[in-house]
Amino acid sequence: MAKETAPRWDRRMQQRLARGEAAALGELYDRFAALVHSQAYRMLDDEDAADLVTREVFAQVWENPEAYDPKQGSMRSWVARLTHRRSVQRLRRAAASSYVAEHGEGATPDPEELERRVRSATAAARADYIVSSMPAPLRQALELAYIHRR
Question: GO MF annotations for this entry (predicted)?
Fold first, then answer.
């Protein structure tokens, strides 16, 4: 099955960003900032780090609007992928820094342990996003069944 082309809004937004329209960045931010911040926060569990990732993602979009390829999907999915990548980079750096702090300068963390942490944070963020996106009655039923064990 062929991928759908990106909505007209996405293509126009990319063109406006490429022309350097600051208003376009503001519009994009208004539309996707909550998505970016919540996705980063779910992965990082750190408000300050999520704020930083949010700024980095929108800076990257502003500086490289041509990196968006409408053939690969919507602008929303592109921004979400950028957020995921930035969050993973931050997770890896934080894990490496804490390992060095615990084990001394020159110590190298186990790459498998780092990847396990990244996969765990990614899976938790996805699950949280899926559940929070559900209609309220379904979400409440899941909470009763799995959290409250009723």
Answer: sigma factor activity
